[in-house]
Amino acid sequence: MIYECERRLQIEAPAEAVWDWMSDLRRLLRLNRFHVRVDCAEPVTEVGQCVPIRHNVYGLYRRMRIARIRAYRRYHVAWGELQEHGKDWFPHSQSFTILPIEAHRCTVVNRLRGKFLLPGVRYWLLPIYRRLSPRILDEENLSIAVHVSETR
Asked: How far apart are alpha carbons 139 and 100 in whole angstroms?
């Protein structure tokens, strides 16, 4: 079953300032509450780069996942994320886009898209995930706003 979620946040900062912070994708990859470690010493700024991410979902799911950068251009980045070994029950992708509004204001668009490969997911997991994922994306967007405001 395919799941999609999009959340937007208007930030009182120039699009270029937001992009300056977001342009090293390691920062974005560290925002998710389930990403406990991003294993990459060098900046992530190119399509095709692969970044190992240690996950811990409430102690129930502990795995290494690999984020492969699929898009990287000014004001837009995207990656796909797959489990490193074994059956992946939620292959997914995420993207962030900055939409300039005015000289000192922009909107961050955070999109998540994935496919649940678990039996009966629509009955037991999807209702929970529909409540949880918007909160996670909102949390990530708010973190971007906080980080950008701290660097200005």
From this structure: 21
Closest to 38 in 3D by CA, of 74, 61, 67, 17: 67
- What's the rounded Cα separation, in Å, for the pair 107 and 12? 9
Secondary-structure breakdown of the chain: helix, strand, coil percentages, each rounded to the nearest 5: 30, 45, 30
pLDDT in tens, the chain (152 residues): 788 999 999 999 999 999 999 999 999 999 999 889 898 889 999 999 999 999 888 877 788 999 999 999 999 999 999 999 888 888 999 999 999 999 999 999 999 999 988 888 888 878 888 999 999 999 999 999 999 998 87
The amino acid sitting at 41 is A
Beta bridge partners of 111: 6, 95
Residue with tokens 């991410």: 53
Please tell me the pTM assigned to this model.
0.93
Q: How far is residue 132 CA from its own chain's centroid? A: 14
The dihedrals phi and psi of 18, each to the nearest 5 degrees, come to -65, -45
Instruction: Answer for the pair 7, 110: CB distance below 8 angstroms, yes or no.
Output: yes
Q: Which of 130, 89, 139 is nearest to 110 (CA)?
A: 139
